[in-house]
Write a structure and sequence with these properties.
Radius of gyration: 21 Å
Order of helices and strands: HHEHEEHEHEHEHHEHEH
Mean pLDDT: 92
Oligomer: single chain
Strand order of the largest sheet: 3-2-1-8-7-6-5-4
Low-confidence stretches: 1-29
Distance between the termini: 52 Å
Helix content: 40-55%
Length: about 290
């Protein structure tokens, strides 16, 4: 046997072994990028794939037809652009889940963070930054709403001046984030309506709102003018978007697409199987 055929055969064996051990990643590296329908602009939340290097996640995301990567820190915002993607939601020191806008004492540091990072987000093409209500800790929802409105009014011009949207996230207080205040769509809508800025809206987390409310499509369509961003996650368990859980994801995506929503839907489920295969299956399912 000549050296050249032997070398080629060895390469083929090694490539086959690589494909067997990392099937979804191998496909992404070897196949042509998938062209999606474009009715839903899909993204992926970085923290769910923290064991995969960001560059590798971005490369794979581009191959399977995603448009963005979600929830990156400022020093990471430029990375998705190397692969034709954007960071669809950035961290900009907008507070923490348990302590944020519903406490007046937090407003100064949140404003300081937004003044520093929102201009950088605009420069990097990051359309959204995240904030939270914070926990109740004995505070009434009415007082919390007043405080949150005041805090958002304090920073909205920063967002307006730079074309970046501040998103306050809806989270469940039943399973994952006990005592969190912005745990119902009605509370969140009340707040952003009072602020009344095109650059202050809701991050509607479908996983969380299924747990708290259900009635997803009607709620989304009724309030779409106040929603800038979506997250996904299988209910129960926050794992794959598949037949083991209760949300009909293609139906929800059709409901969103019917509103002509042009923001991003970011997958924020924690894979329980091969993570990249699960991500591609979710993207396929939501490509309506």
């Amino acid at each position: 046997m000549s050296k050249l055929p032997r070398r080629n055969m060895l390469k083929s064996v090694l490539r086959g072994a690589a494909a067997a051990s990392l099937p979804s990643l191998f496909w992404a590296q070897e196949g042509a990028p998938i062209k999606r329908k474009g009715n839903i602009r899909q993204s992926v939340s970085r923290w769910c794939y923290k064991n995969i290097p960001l560059d590798k996640l971005c490369a794979y995301s581009a191959e399977i037809g995603l448009k963005a990567v979600d929830l990156l820190n400022p020093e990471e915002w430029e990375v998705p652009a190397r692969y034709g993607l954007v960071c669809s939601m950035g961290y900009a020191q907008g507070g923490e889940i348990g302590s944020a806008m519903n406490r007046v004492e937090n407003h100064g540091r949140i404003e300081e963070g937004f003044r520093k990072y929102i201009p950088l987000a605009a420069k990097a093409g990051v359309p959204n930054v995240i904030t939270f209500s914070g926990n109740r800790a004995g505070m009434s929802d009415e007082e919390g709403a007043r405080n949150t409105i005041a805090g958002l009014n304090r920073v909205k011009k920063i967002a307006e001046d730079h074309g970046v949207t501040i998103c306050i996230e809806l989270l469940n207080s039943k399973v994952d984030h006990h005592d969190y205040m912005c745990d119902h769509t009605a509370w969140g809508v009340q707040v952003v309506q009072a602020v009344n800025s095109p650059r202050v809206k809701l991050l509607f987390d479908i996983y969380h709102m299924q747990i708290m409310e259900g009635d997803l499509v009607r709620t989304i369509q009724k309030n779409i003018d106040w929603i800038a961003h979506f997250h996904t996650g299988g209910v129960p368990g926050r794992h794959e978007l598949d037949g083991s859980q209760e949300v009909q994801w293609d139906g929800v995506m059709r409901g969103i697409a019917a509103t002509n929503f042009r923001g991003y839907v970011a997958h924020e489920f924690v894979p329980a199987r091969d993570s990249l295969t699960s991500l591609r299956q979710a993207v396929d399912l939501c490509d309506v």
